[in-house]
Amino acid sequence: MTESHPLNLQTAARQIKTWGTELGFNDLRITDTDLELDAARLKAWLGNNMHMPLEWMTDHGDMRYTPNSLLEGTQRVISVRLNYLPEDVDLIAPLKNENAAYISRYALGRDYHKLFRKRLAKLAAKISEAFPNSTQRALVDSAPVMEKALARKAGHGWVGKNSLIIHPEDGSYFFLGEIYTDLELPIDQPDDADRCDDCEACLKVCPTDAFIAPYQLEVKRCISYLTIENTGPIPLEFREAIGNRVFGCDDCQIICPWNKQPATTNEVDFSPRNDLDSADLSRLFRWNEEEFLTATVGSPLRRSGYHNFLRNLAIGLGNAPSSDEHISLLKQRLAENISELLNEHIQWAIERQESRRKRRRKSKRA
To answer: Alpha-carbon distance 62 to 45, whole Å?
Structure first.
């Protein structure tokens, strides 16, 4: 890195932020690479096995909290924020409608990795062009990075009790990305005062009690893990609590007082596709694999895969109001014998449906 004149770097920081705004980012801030405090918290969390069964969280040694070991010579991290919540999407109605499939609001449209990575790469290229002898690396979930710790230090907000970054004005519905750089840019001051105070709404609302304490998430209980990352059976103890959440969960964000008027996005790519913001469980459960693949081109839903998406929908149908239509649909799928894992979840759902139907008939006779 040859350019080091303070005045030039002050100007560079302002220019980089202007470029970020022009590229459509909602905020761009700069921090140093000292993550000692956050590293201690991460080590304690990992030491208590709160990350399991995500074994890969312990890979890469100290690379997560020493940016210089990921990109030699890193002096600063440019932390970038991109809002994702579509303006007209209802957060509550699908959760109250037991026949609807609830999909986490970040996953309704195009996979953010594609859009975010492309724009961040453009920004990194602009910086490299302006400072030819400097080095940049753009990162969007593509390397071991403590993105929330860096966002907190840079001034995007504080880490809430639900373990998410919360902005005091914009809430928490946003993605984060980073550019590591060897430019010694002036840093922004954090605004990370913990404003959660004595509120524990997010901890109490979690359907599966995944928060064992404030700021402490136990991954294996989290619905986002269970319905997306988990490739095996969903434990019986969580199935009823999952309700109609078939891909991720937003409960701890929806309940947060700082999200009463959250920032929204005008990004067309984040708008709901295939009416996924209000789709019926039964309609999605009828998709064959070709229909699933066609409907989810470029979508985060591909992460779960077709069979696990059906697994999640089967649980949703098991928790839905009992109806002959639901039972018939589940039995049709069971007859297809797609996989033993799926069959077991479908059988659970059928038993739930039939049990409630029997209770309803007894109630009518009484």
So the answer is: 14
Annotated domain spans of the chain = 6-88+109-181, 201-264+271-365
| Tens digits of residue pLDDT in 249-303 | 999 999 999 999 999 999 999 999 999 999 999 999 999 999 999 999 999 999 9
Radius of gyration for the alpha carbons in the chain, expressed in angstroms and rounded: 23
Cβ(205)–Cβ(199) below 8 Å: no
Distance, C-alpha 46 to centroid of its chain = 20
SS (H, E, C) 253-314: HHCCHHHCCCCCECCHHHCCCCCCCCCEHHHHHCCCHHHHHHHCCCCHHHHCCHHHHHHHHH
pLDDT value at residue 222: 98
DSSP assignment, residue 56? G
Q: Which pTM value belongs to this model? A: 0.93
Please report the pLDDT score of residue 7 as a whole number.
54
Chain Cα centroid distance, residue 288: 26
Task: Count CB neighbours of 259 within 10 A.
Answer: 22
- Would residue 192 show up in a list of annotated catalytic residues for this protein? no
In this structure, how many other beta carbons lie within 10 angstroms of the beta carbon of residue 119? 19
Out of 141, 191, 269, 280, pick the active-site residue: 141
What residue ranges of the chain have pLDDT lower than 70? 1-7, 362-366
Q: Give me the sign of the Cα torsion angle 43, 47, 48, 51.
A: positive
Cα–Cα dist 239/323, whole Å: 19
Q: How far is CA 52 from the centre of its chain?
A: 17
Single out the residue of 347, 352, 275 nearest to residue 311, CA to CA.
347
CATH architecture of 6-88+109-181: 3-Layer(aba) Sandwich (3.40)
What are residue 29's DSSP bridge partners? Answer: 79
Between CA 219 and CA 53 the distance in angstroms is: 8
Grouping H, G, I as helix, E, B as strand and the rest as coil, residue 58 is helix
Phi-psi region of 89 (alpha: psi -120 to 50; beta: other; left: phi over 0): beta
